[in-house]
Design a protein that fits this description.
Layout lengths: L18 H26 L14 H8 L8 E3 L5 H6 L4 H8 L33 H17 L10 E6 L6 H12 L4 E7 L2 E2 L2 E2 H4 L16 E5 L3 H16 L5 E6 L17 H8 L3 H11 L5 H24 L18
Parallel strand pairs: 1-2, 2-3, 3-7, 6-7
Antiparallel strand pairs: 4-5
Helix pairs in contact: 1-2, 1-10, 1-11, 2-8, 4-11, 5-6
């Protein structure tokens, strides 16, 4: 069995998305998938170094949550699998690719690489190499929003923070400490657990005493929701509810998105621990194919139109690679810049 739980079902006729929304979701998911495929190519060609963790298969979670938020206003906090979160948050493909190439034009000025993408302009709080490292950062971002509104009296301070974490992080102390704090202080944050069943090479079912992560929310008195993370419309619907709650001052929500990564833990992982049958079964539930079928069946888009969009996105990614290759290396004279905050 690939999944021991019965997945929640999202009925197509209950969707309320428009053609414009459907195409927006499709473009973002294809951008994420195509970008990661190009990253794999560049890594194996020796253009990228270090650890590179790809997001293939999980696109419905990033798109479903982040595209339900306010662009450049709400906050997104990621993990070491952060490329697609950055793209969904609006960071240009050129800047993400340049960062992966270690170039000065990268979103982190070439200093972060694959696991440390950051963009103040797009309220991307960062990718974090250590498991659960971003949870306190996201909680702090939500706290400052509440402080600005309730203490400083800023009426426009209603931003929501989305904190993405993997299933492995939910056994970490920071997870419990920060969910407790978020519940106690009623913070405007949505904790999004991307349960892809594997924490590197450890199967989730073998690593935790409560495999149904969304149930852990109950001890903090916050809503816990399980959703099919391979269905972008289902994720979007759940995210919209959680975001609305947070923005209205009703506090945090824990979302467990049941998803699957189509590649190994990183590009250095031979991926020999997962069974062939498990991987093949999850591949049949590809979230992009699922959305494509929905858009065409509901007459929101034609196949030729979607193919044209895919080609346009591929052209943009090729452009990002060329931009990264042509960009300058960081100046050694700037080695000590960005250690401390600078005056604007």
């Amino acid at each position: 069995m690939v999944q021991e739980r019965i997945l929640p079902t999202f009925e197509a006729d209950s969707a309320t998305i428009t053609r414009e929304e459907g195409l927006m979701l499709f473009k973002d998911m294809v951008l994420g998938r195509s970008f990661e495929d190009k990253c794999a190519e560049m890594y194996y060609r020796g253009k990228m170094f270090g650890f590179v963790h790809l997001y293939n298969g999980q696109e419905a979670v990033s798109t479903g949550v982040i595209k339900a938020m306010r662009p450049d206003e709400d906050y997104v906090c990621s993990t070491y699998r952060d490329h697609v979160h950055a793209l969904s948050a609006g960071v240009p493909p050129r800047e993400v690719m340049a960062e992966l190439f270690g170039k000065a034009t990268g979103c982190s000025k070439g200093r972060g690489g694959s696991m440390h993408l950051f963009s103040a302009e797009h309220n991307l709080l960062g990718g974090f190499a250590f498991v659960a490292e971003g949870i306190p950062i996201a909680t702090g971002a939500a706290l400052q929003t509440k402080y600005r509104k309730e203490v400083l009296g800023e009426e426009t301070a209603d931003q929501v923070t989305a904190c993405f974490i993997g299933d492995g992080a939910t056994n970490n102390g920071q997870f419990f400490e920060c969910l407790n704090m978020a519940a106690l202080w009623n913070l405007p944050i949505v904790f999004v657990v991307e349960n892809n069943k594997w924490a590197i090479g450890m199967a989730h079912q073998r690593a935790t005493s409560q495999a149904e992560i969304y149930r852990k929310a109950s001890v903090f008195g916050m809503p816990g929701v399980e959703v099919d993370g391979m269905d972008v419309l289902a994720v979007r619907a759940v995210a919209q509810t959680a975001i609305a709650r947070a923005r209205a001052g009703e506090g945090p929500t824990l979302i467990e998105a049941l998803t699957y990564r189509f590649r190994g833990h990183s590009l250095a992982d031979p991926d020999e621990l997962r069974s062939k049958s498990e991987k093949e079964e999850w591949l049949t539930r590809d979230p992009i194919k699922k959305l494509t079928a929905y858009l065409t069946e509901q007459n929101l888009a034609a196949h030729d139109e979607l193919k044209e969009i895919q080609q346009q996105i591929q052209n943009a990614i090729n452009d990002a690679v060329q931009f990264a290759q042509d960009s300058p290396e960081p100046d050694p004279g700037d080695l000590y810049r960005y250690v401390f905050a600078e005056d604007e």
